[in-house]
Amino acid sequence: MSPLPTADANHGDLAHDHEALTALQGLLDACKDGTIDRLCDRLGIELLGSFGSAVVAWHANQRGEHDSLGASPHDLDIAVQFAGPLRPLETLDALTALTSYDHIDLAVMNDADPVLRAAGLTGIGLFERERGAWAEAQIQAVAERRDTAWLRHLDLLAMSGRRPSSITEWYADWQGA
Question: What phi, psi does 116 have (nearest 5°)?
């Protein structure tokens, strides 16, 4: 039995990091030849996209630059929204088979919190069942994250034990956060 690959704490396993970009490129190629369309139709997927460090690195590579954040992708983050019954395991299996890459993190957008929805839907769109659905979902997700920011701030205040004495103090604190 061969040992598991180890990664340098700062740089990761370069071969593994490159695999995430290769897998993303494979998905982009599958969009061009219709493979993604057939997969999404079969699994009842409404929206499919990629986000996270692999997308950042892919964009940097497309510009001929190194990843400006200095982080190499260690996985491929995929956002999925289902039109009907949720089928995350089948989707993960199908994407793993399609890309020959098993470090895929699947984020189901259907019931995701506003922060995850905004992150997941602002990457690269791979599939939309209806024309314009990806852009509409992006706008809604970013607006929901913005509109609920004050609630997350109240949660942080409650967890810290700090209690503003007035709404004015709370609002000033929130605006400064």
Answer: -65, -40
